[in-house]
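Continuing from yesterday's entry. The apo prediction looked reasonable, so today I'm repeating it with coenzyme A included to see how the binding region is handled. Same sequence as before; SMILES copied from the compound registry.
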Amino acid sequence: MKKRIGIFGTSGMGREAGDVARACGIEPFYVARDEIEVAGWIGAGEVILEKEVGAYSHYPFVIGIGDNEIRRKVALRFEGKLDFSNLVHPSATFGYRQRKVINEAQGVIVAAGVRFTSNIAVESFVLFNQNATIAHDCVVEHFVHVAPGANISGNVHLRQGVWVGAGAVINQGDDKRRLTIGMNSVIGSGAVVTEDCEPNGIYVGVPAKRIK
Ligand SMILES: CC(C)(COP(=O)(O)OP(=O)(O)OC[C@H]1O[C@@H](n2cnc3c(N)ncnc32)[C@H](O)[C@@H]1OP(=O)(O)O)[C@@H](O)C(=O)NCCC(=O)NCCS
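Holo prediction written out below.
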């Protein structure tokens, strides 16, 4: 029988997570919050309602929702009720023992072409989007989203809920002190971050400056 995985989210990120599942030979089905979301479905595959999820609880799930706060709320709502698995595209590459680190988390999605080098700590419900790179000795906390093509250099600490935009670069910290992006901060697309960022900020530009 074909393996299946439930994906919360029916928008772009959800469909992209479904494609990662298919690349792994796993058939995705999708979980919509309500009938309005079902009516807007443009993808391929079965869509169920969130209230029906109990009947599917023998399957693993991931949360294919790009918004860190919404993803956190879904994770909390179903904590202990569903088995949140990890979904890793076969084209992602990993340094020594790095794949094991991801396996020990839950709800992590790694899209096509992501590259991890060595000694990177990864917590749960993190999204690594296509072609992102994460270098040695980084720490990536819960509910982070790394958008396509972002480059996280060595010795960087992404605190919980950080959102790194497409093509952004985070410069390296050092082995005594990681460059740290504060909780829930957003790094704009194409930014180059050269120093620590405070929590709850929005940073853009080269070098990145706080705008909000
Ligand atoms: C950083 C970001 C979140 C800011 O969004 P916002 O809070 O709605 O900000 P605004 O659109 O009001 O822009 C505020 C100012 O910052 C500028 N700005 C916005 N994003 C910028 C960016 N990435 N780089 C440089 N400047 C940027 C705007 O031009 C505007 O400048 P102004 O005040 O001189 O007119 C958003 O622009 C962004 O970069 N998002 C990431 C997109 C992405 O990576 N998507 C991938 C999806 S997987």
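Comparison notes:
- Residues 91-207 form a domain with the UDP N-Acetylglucosamine Acyltransferase; domain 1 fold (CATH 2.160.10.10).
- The chain has a mean pLDDT of 97.
Will overlay with the apo model tomorrow.
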